Structure to design on (1155 residues):
């Protein structure tokens, strides 16, 4: 369904192209000194104060920089909107500087903020209500694009039904741990087929551990590994229908914490069995990220759970150094069914207008222009979105929500094109990837390797497309920045959770320790947190 | 008698003028303190509010002691407090023991040039900022190619991630802090050592006392007062584990053992925007420090006859 | 007389220096030399890094001597406009703040060095000065207040709040207390008012203590970084240490993840960082011998009495 919608959008877009810079619905209803004239332009022009970050290592793109670029020109020339800086700081300081300004009640007119800041701005009445201006001014294209993810991001930008921010939309399958990446060269070494279900995968894991897949004559390989956060095993947990770090819906539709569910217990039991067999390195619990990556680079593991683009980073190194050939597979259900994976929590940026700013609608006009240019004709996309070298000109725009699931659509188009179907005009970047895929299929080469693995017929995106088509994506049921009790207790609960898991897997504690942990979790704040989470979810 | 009367008379009229002059001299610093210390101090009331930015200090809702109750039930506060005390107390102890030992050793050297050179070199690090020193330490403690790990590697020891390892981090803070400060702290002890009455040593030598005996019966008692004084005065800083140092060297991986009150307050207030809660933490810290300082100054007055003001 | 006697005693005892003592002396010298080396080595290492090739630096070949000697890193620093702008901001800050703060410390310490009989109201002032040492509103209220004063994004935000360093006032006050009272009395009999006495009688006598607090002020302003990051509105306004904090410690230590740590270690431009560290240290190294002479005396007399 979602994919269909996305395809329709793509089709609509390719036809629509640019409909001029016209905002025909530019009524002068605000009664302010400045309003849009017939051309859809502020006259006299308005200035929006920003709090921006400046990276001292920033490099010019096509002679453009953050102070002089096509986006600033477009907003000025087509909308009569100019920008000025309330402050400029290094990217690392931006969040803190803005927090201090928020504390002082002196905020810029337009802000790109985190979830936490968003909630704070709304709670202290510093955020403008955008509900009306959005309804009134957002173009059809904008509305469609903003809802390309099924409207989740927009929903998260509302409080009490009022829209307080424009979310920087993005797809929800960007999260790590949704794709199983397996070393094809090891499978070939051991004359194994590509596993099609969990049982076969388990056999592969075994073989990868005991049959010396890298042929170096040393017993130095394991089935799977992770860093000490266990984040890279979320895919494995998902095989068991377990989502240990997420808020999920149980069979009764109630929101529960995944970390204390029976499914998680089962997954831990399975991991312990693997550990006992020697399929997991004894050091996994102590591995930091660097050591984990090192174990991949040193060809100690051949199966990892990562994001769809992982083949580029961090799996690119071992490919270049040791010729590792990675192939992406979906996560497989341990009971032989299809496993569902967890989508990521929501937008990481929200665009908020200051409450008393005279022109809250300016943000919506900017948004319309953004989608027109950044997702317009081929020429416009090359000029405003991503140039031929793949550099993101789009980042110069003060706002840049992405079209959700763009990459999956690229994959679909490339696939259909390869199948000889007419897909119409492709986005320039899609075209570039398509050419790369073609080159790679003709003659496998280093340059196009990661493009092929990300967008080609057997790519990471294919796996995502599979999830979307088969309704295999779950959503975080809680995406706030933390309930009251959560803010106080979460740290300890999280530590305890991780500690228990690691001990169970390593056999230092029996599996029953999970039940004790679950009880403790509830009694030391988890119960309260669950209630708060449910209450907040119900209030939406 | 006559003369005295005359002089008193001469002073008595300008006395008021003198007093006025004194007050006038105090004026600039008092104004500055009011503007930059006393007025922001009103922010403390945030600790008793649910501070909401747009409403400001005067419009925010009053919540009584709620923030303090929350503060003491916060899960990581104990850990933070423990880290703070562990790091601060270790620093205080080492910052007495190391400089005193160092001063005693240096005092045994008769070559003035050598003494002055060693002294100058050792108190140099005190004057370098933690920003600089953090840069230096990140460099030499790096697990990949850092000087220290290269040396350890020479002895066949695996690289240690000093700044990214929970066990190492607090101790690295303590050691680097001592490294930076001991030379400076030793100045006072050295001065005290040189002021010990030399004739005592001569008398002792005549009595046939050996060096150890001289040390225990003359040298150490001679500097006992100043050591006690310095110890007592450092008690007030028992909740200061060193913001500049830790802030520039820590990272989330070592929060568990490296997060101290000041960094915690900073993150709570500026990163997490828990403005009221972070103010409550600083207020509690100030009160505890105040009590300790008052006690320690009383002790200092009693044992060392030292008055701070 | 006493001195002579001592000398005599020393030469007298020299004959009897035991072998343990000799051993101790040797050990002592070696040990102290080692300690001094330990204080210098990290700095020498950084210096060596700054003169080495980036490859030698990142592959960990550099110890205490440069490997593949090159001046590239310094050329980079010389060309780095941001570095020198920040350097300039710091110099401006020092030029304004240090003289002002010294005047304020000096005129404040003087009345406070009088006892309660000579200066009515001293008690009030001591309490008034003690309170800010113990209580502060915290970062957020300070930020809000400075915002009201219009200081955010203004170099005065780095100068005004620190003009009254109370510990330096105390140091100078203690130093003044120990000055012989007769000198001032003599001057006052000659008809000199308190201000005149302060500048003609007291000032020349307090040079060591003033040198000490001046060193503290210079080093303090040179080294402070946090206020710059907090109160300035643009990286162009950053003083040197704030600039270094954001560029040398390139990672944001508070949001750093293990991924960043790994990245930082592999792609760090170690040599140019080392060169910047070293250049930023040089002024302290230059300033410090000038104050060195007075420093120990001022510090010891000011902080420890009797």
């Amino acid at each position: 369904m979602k994919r269909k919608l996305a395809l329709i959008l793509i089709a609509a877009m390719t036809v629509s192209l640019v409909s001029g810079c016209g905002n025909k619905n530019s009524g002068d209803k605000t009664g302010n000194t400045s309003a849009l004239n017939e051309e859809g332009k502020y006259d006299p022009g308005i200035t929006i104060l920003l709090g921006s970050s400046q990276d001292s290592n920033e490099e010019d793109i096509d002679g453009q920089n953050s102070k002089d670029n096509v986006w600033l020109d477009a907003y000025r020339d087509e909308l009569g909107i100019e920008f000025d800086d309330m402050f400029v700081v290094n990217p690392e300081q931006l969040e803190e500087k803005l927090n201090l300004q928020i504390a002082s009640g002196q905020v810029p007119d337009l802000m790109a903020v985190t979830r936490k800041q968003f909630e704070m701005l709304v709670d202290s009445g510093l955020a403008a209500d955008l509900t009306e201006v959005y309804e009134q001014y957002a173009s059809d294209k904008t509305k469609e694009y903003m809802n390309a993810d099924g409207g989740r991001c927009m929903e998260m930008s509302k409080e009490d039904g009022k829209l307080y921010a424009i979310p920087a939309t993005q797809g929800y399958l960007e999260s790590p741990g949704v794709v199983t990446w397996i070393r094809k060269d090891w499978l070939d070494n051991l004359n194994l087929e590509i596993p099609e279900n969990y049982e076969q995968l388990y056999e592969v894991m075994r073989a990868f551990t005991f049959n010396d897949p890298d042929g170096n004559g040393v017993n130095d390989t394991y089935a799977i590994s992770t860093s000490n956060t266990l984040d890279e095993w979320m895919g494995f947990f998902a095989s068991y229908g377990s989502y240990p770090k997420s808020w999920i819906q149980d069979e009764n539709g109630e929101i529960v914490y995944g970390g204390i569910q029976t499914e998680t217990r089962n997954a831990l039991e399975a991991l312990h069995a693997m550990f006992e067999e020697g399929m997991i390195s004894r050091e996994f619990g102590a591995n930091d990220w660097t050591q984990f990556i090192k174990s991949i680079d040193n060809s100690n593991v051949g199966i990892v759970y990562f994001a769809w683009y992982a083949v580029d980073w961090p799996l690119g190194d071992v490919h270049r150094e040791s010729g590792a050939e990675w192939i992406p597979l979906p996560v497989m259900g341990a009971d032989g069914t299809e496993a569902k994976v967890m989508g990521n929590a929501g937008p990481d940026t929200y665009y908020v207008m200051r409450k008393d700013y005279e022109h809250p609608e300016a943000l919506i006009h900017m948004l319309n222009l953004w989608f027109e240019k950044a997702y317009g004709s081929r020429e416009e996309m090359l000029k405003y979105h991503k140039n031929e070298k793949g550099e993101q000109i789009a980042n110069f725009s003060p706002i840049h929500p992405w079209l959700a699931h763009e990459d999956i659509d690229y994959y679909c188009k490339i696939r259909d094109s390869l199948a000889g179907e007419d897909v119409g005009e492709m986005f320039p970047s899609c075209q570039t990837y398509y050419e790369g895929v073609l080159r790679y299929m003709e003659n496998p080469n280093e340059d196009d390797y990661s493009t092929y693995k990300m967008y080609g017929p057997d790519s990471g995106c294919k796996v995502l497309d599979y999830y979307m088509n088969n309704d295999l994506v779950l959503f975080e049921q809680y995406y706030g920045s933390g309930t009251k009790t959560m803010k106080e207790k979460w740290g300890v609960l999280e530590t305890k959770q991780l500690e228990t898991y690691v001990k169970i897997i390593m056999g230092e504690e029996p599996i029953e320790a999970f039940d004790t942990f679950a009880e403790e979790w509830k009694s030391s704040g988890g119960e309260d947190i669950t209630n708060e989470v449910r209450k907040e979810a119900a209030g939406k | 008698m006559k003369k005295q009367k005359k002089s008193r008379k001469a002073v008595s009229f300008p006395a008021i003028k003198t007093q006025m002059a004194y007050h006038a001299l105090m004026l600039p610093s008092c104004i500055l303190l009011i503007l930059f210390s006393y007025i922001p101090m009103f922010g403390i009331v945030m600790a008793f509010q649910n501070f909401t930015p747009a409403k400001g200090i005067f419009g925010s809702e009053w919540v009584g002691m709620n923030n303090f109750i929350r503060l003491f039930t916060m899960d990581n506060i104990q850990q933070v407090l423990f880290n703070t005390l562990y790091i601060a107390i270790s620093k205080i102890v080492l910052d007495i023991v190391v400089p005193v030992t160092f001063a005693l050793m240096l005092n045994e050297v008769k070559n003035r040039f050598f003494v002055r050179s060693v002294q100058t070199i050792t108190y140099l690090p005190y004057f370098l900022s933690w920003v600089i020193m953090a840069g230096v330490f990140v460099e030499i403690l790096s697990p990949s190619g850092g000087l220290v790990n290269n040396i350890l590697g020479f002895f066949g020891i695996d690289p240690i991630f000093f700044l990214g390892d929970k066990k190492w981090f607090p101790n690295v803070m303590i050691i680097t802090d001592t490294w930076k400060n001991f030379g400076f702290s030793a100045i006072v002890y050295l001065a005290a050592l040189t002021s010990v009455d030399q004739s005592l040593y001569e008398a002792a030598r005549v009595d046939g006392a050996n060096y150890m005996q001289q040390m225990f019966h003359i040298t150490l008692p001679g500097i006992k007062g100043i050591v006690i004084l310095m110890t007592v005065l450092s008690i007030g800083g028992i909740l200061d584990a060193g913001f500049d140092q830790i802030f520039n060297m820590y990272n989330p991986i070592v929060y568990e053992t490296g997060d101290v009150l000041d960094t915690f307050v900073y993150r709570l207030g500026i990163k997490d925007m828990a403005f009221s809660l972070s103010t409550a933490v600083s207020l509690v810290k100030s009160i505890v420090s105040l009590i300790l300082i008052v006690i320690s100054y009383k002790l200092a007055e009693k044992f060392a006859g030292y008055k701070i003001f | 007389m006493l001195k002579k006697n001592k000398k005599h005693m020393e030469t007298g005892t020299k004959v009897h220096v035991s072998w343990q003592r000799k051993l101790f002396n040797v050990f002592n010298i070696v040990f102290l030399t080692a300690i001094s080396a330990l204080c210098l080595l990290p700095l020498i290492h950084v210096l060596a890094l700054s003169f080495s090739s980036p490859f030698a630096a990142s592959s960990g070949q550099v110890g205490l001597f440069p490997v593949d000697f090159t001046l590239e890193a310094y050329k980079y620093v010389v060309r780095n406009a941001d570095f020198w702008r920040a350097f300039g901001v710091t110099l401006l800050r020092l030029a304004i703040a240090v003289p002002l703060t010294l005047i304020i410390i000096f005129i404040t310490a003087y009345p406070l060095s009088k006892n309660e009989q000579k200066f009515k109201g001293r008690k009030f002032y001591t309490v008034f000065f003690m309170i800010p040492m113990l209580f502060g509103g915290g970062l957020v209220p300070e930020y809000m207040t400075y915002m009201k004063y219009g200081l955010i994004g203004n170099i005065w935000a780095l100068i005004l709040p620190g003009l009254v360093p109370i510990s330096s006032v105390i140091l100078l006050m203690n130093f003044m207390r120990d000055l012989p009272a007769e000198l001032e009395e003599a001057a006052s009999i000659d008809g000199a008012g308190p201000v005149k006495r302060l500048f003609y009688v007291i000032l020349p006598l307090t040079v060591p203590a003033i040198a000490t607090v001046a060193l503290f002020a210079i080093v303090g302003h040179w080294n402070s970084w946090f206020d710059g990051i907090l109160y300035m509105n643009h990286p162009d306004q950053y003083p040197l240490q704030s600039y270094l904090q954001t560029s040398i410690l390139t990672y944001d230590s508070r949001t750093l993840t293990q991924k960043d740590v790994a990245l930082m270690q592999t792609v760090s431009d170690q040599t140019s960082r080392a060169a910047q560290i070293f250049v930023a240290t040089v002024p302290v190294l230059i300033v410090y011998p000038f104050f060195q002479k007075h420093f120990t005396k001022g510090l010891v007399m000011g902080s420890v009495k009797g």
Chain A touches chain C through 19 residues (CB under 8 Å).
